[in-house]
């Protein structure tokens, strides 16, 4: 068969909603796109633990601490599901991780913002996990089987994340004046970066078309962002708070909320490495990896010893 | 505003100097770590049901693979039993041969109960 015949057949499968599995033939560019997307998605889960990890030891109660710990632990699991899915495409785990540590691979820019108060943990759960969920619900139907299955697993766990965040904010919004102010302040700081999580406007990004054709992505950045705005504009009312956008307004004709312009200069700045915490995040990841070296060595030594003992027993 | 980056993958992650992928691992890690094998994890969600593939992970040996699998795949009581098997021991049919490989079954419609038209009087068969 000629290579274009392979490609035609591949596209027919995609069009017929047949999932692509690891051993199936796939165009090189499809494989490459997936390796990048899945590994960077995995990195986002892992680096995403850092801003929240900052508050585990300072959570206001034992209950909140246990919840946050469980949430952050989930994110580590999400990283693992995704690294495994990525591996099915034929790339070694070490290389994926090295790419993160060398700064070669990226992660979502949202995690380069600092968590200044406890209310930020609430805002992250509600807004950042909320935005991630919309992306991930879409990806449950992505064309690559292992990626789609990882997403289904992840989405099941995510809804607790968003709820616990909203619950934190709801408690603060019913608290003292100082707590209310803290709540609004966190929303003000996290709102715009959360909108940026969906990526640049459709008119500014080129590879969406190919990803849509391959059904890796199934909704455009702008579609997802609009969905997010519509959702949050309603939910914020329950909190008796406001979103920091004076242009936010229901548009009856469109049946959607209109919203103000995003500061793309800020976005590009963070993407290029000049966000408030870019260096700190990467340094923390590298340190964790280096400090864990002895654990990995010990595990390998222990496994060797155990294998040895079994051999002696068997002999 | 710099907009020289026009390709994006997951959400807002740009394709500027992102990993190329598909090269063999180059790592400064010790050989031990690089050689931690990959394990496939199978989980029985409830007594009486089959074990089902849940995912994979790296671990130094089977015992640790099972412990890690418990930590990642059963945080919400998803399982009552875990199997792990080193990925290299899994043999799979070839998807390229799927058509001819499964073809022998496709013309044997009489293997299905719906093939037989019985009189109304024969109920619940
Ligand atoms: Fe997650
Ligand atoms: Fe999450």
TrEMBL record, chain A:
This is Ring-1,2-phenylacetyl-CoA epoxidase subunit PaaA. One of its GO terms (biological process) is phenylacetate catabolic process. It comes from the Bacteria. Gene3D superfamilies: 1.20.1260.10. It comes from Parafilimonas terrae. One of its GO terms (cellular component) is cytosol. Pfam families: PaaA_PaaC (PF05138). GO terms for molecular function: phenylacetyl-CoA 1,2-epoxidase activity.
From TrEMBL, chain B:
It comes from the Bacteria. InterPro entries: PaaB, PaaB_sf. This is Ring-1,2-phenylacetyl-CoA epoxidase subunit PaaB. It comes from Parafilimonas terrae.
């Amino acid at each position: 068969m000629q290579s274009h015949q392979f490609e035609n057949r591949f596209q027919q499968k995609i069009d017929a909603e047949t999932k692509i599995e690891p051993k199936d033939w796939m165009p090189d560019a499809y494989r490459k796109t997936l390796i990048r997307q899945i590994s960077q998605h995995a990195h986002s889960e892992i680096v995403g633990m850092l801003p929240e990890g900052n508050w585990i030891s300072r959570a206001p109660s034992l209950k909140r601490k246990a919840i946050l710990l469980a949430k952050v632990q989930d994110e580590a699991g999400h990283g693992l599901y995704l690294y495994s899915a990525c591996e099915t495409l034929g790339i070694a785990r070490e290389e994926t991780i090295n790419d993160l540590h060398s700064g070669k691979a990226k992660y979502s820019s949202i995690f380069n913002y600092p968590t200044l108060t406890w209310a930020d943990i609430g805002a992250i759960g509600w807004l950042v996990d909320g935005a991630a969920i919309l992306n991930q619900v879409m990806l449950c139907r992505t064309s690559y089987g292992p990626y789609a299955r990882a997403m289904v697993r992840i989405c099941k766990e995510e809804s607790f994340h968003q709820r616990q965040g909203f619950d934190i904010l709801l408690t603060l919004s019913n608290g003292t004046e100082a707590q209310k102010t803290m709540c609004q302040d966190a929303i003000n700081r996290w709102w715009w970066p959360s909108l940026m999580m969906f990526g640049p406007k459709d008119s500014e990004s080129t590879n969406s078309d190919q990803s849509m054709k391959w059904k890796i992505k199934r909704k455009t950045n702008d579609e997802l962002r609009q969905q997010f705005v519509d959702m949050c504009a309603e939910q914020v009312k329950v909190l008796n708070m406001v979103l920091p956008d004076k242009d936010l307004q229901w548009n009856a004709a469109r049946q959607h909320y209109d919203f103000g312009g995003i500061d793309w200069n800020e976005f590009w700045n963070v993407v290029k490495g000049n966000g408030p915490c870019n260096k700190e995040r990467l340094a923390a990841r590298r340190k964790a990896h280096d400090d864990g070296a002895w654990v990995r060595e010990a595990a390998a030594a222990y496994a060797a010893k155990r294998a040895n003992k079994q051999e002696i027993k068997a002999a | 505003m710099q907009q020289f980056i026009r390709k994006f993958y997951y959400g807002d992650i740009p394709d500027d100097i992102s990993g190329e992928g598909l090269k063999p691992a180059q790592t400064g890690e010790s050989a031990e770590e690089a050689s931690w094998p990959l394990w496939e994890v199978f989980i029985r969600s409830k007594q009486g049901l089959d074990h089902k593939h849940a995912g994979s992970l790296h671990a130094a040996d089977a015992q640790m693979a099972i412990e890690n699998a418990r930590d990642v795949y059963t945080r919400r009581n998803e399982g009552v039993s875990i199997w792990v098997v080193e990925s290299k021991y899994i043999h799979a049919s070839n998807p390229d041969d799927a058509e001819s490989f499964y073809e022998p079954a496709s013309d044997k419609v009489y293997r299905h109960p719906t093939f037989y038209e019985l009189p109304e009087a024969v109920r619940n068969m």
